[in-house]
Amino acid sequence: MRVVGALAVAGALSACADRPTSVAVRVTLDGVPVPGLDVIAYPFDPDRLLDSLAAAFPEPRPDFAALERELLAFTPPPPPPDDTAEVGWRATRDSVVWLADSLNAVDRRSAGYGDAYHRFRQLYMRLVQRSATRESARRADLDPVRELARRAGRAADSLRVWERLAYAGFDSAVARLVAGGEHEPILATTAADGWLELELAPGAWWLEARLPHRDNPFAEYVWSVGLVSAGFPFRLLLSEATATLEWRH
Description:
Layout: E1 7-9, E2 21-29, E3 32-33, E4 38-42, H1 46-56, H2 65-72, H3 84-104, H4 113-166, H5 170-179, E5 186-189, E6 195-200, E7 203-212, E8 219-229, E9 234-238, E10 244-247
Parallel strand pairs: 1-8, 2-9
Antiparallel strand pairs: 2-3, 2-6, 4-5, 4-7, 7-8, 8-10
Helix pairs in contact: 3-4
């Protein structure tokens, strides 16, 4: 939750300020609606609360800044333009299947069966060799990705342990704020068209949402938007342009 969102003002404070504000929020990526996304409205700044908890925790947050930059810059390796190993493997596999079916339909005592079976054995051994070549080519492409995933996994485990301990008091702090007069946080989920509706009591609110990146498994879109509920209904768009890209751990 390390985001400073832009302030979206619902309207000038006026006589309407004592009425709830109807807020319509739409989430899109490249103009396409995002359904099923949870958006949480907090009547306080959750990032500020997390910062206070982290400041009180005796151990500093693990620093993986260099790794995070590498993960956010990750792009999946493109498929080879001419995958000769894959084409040869598929052709040999299809020939093996065809010849095996042909042999199954032939009496083993018939003339020529021995020669046909010998050709089948040769073709099958060629398939084994081409399978090994195909797997080796795939491994060469995937090994760097697997190594990056292993490094990311180890770092994520370490960071999650720290967050679990450092932020352990978050829920109880929220409960104290609510008991002291703050409103309850509100959870809403986008519909099939990417829209959701919120009724927010007067005052300052913060909307938080997270969405996995479409192409980068190590990244996610994060929204943290502050707004003022002043009694005037309005609409708010959450898109990749208003999101921050963060390491998904």
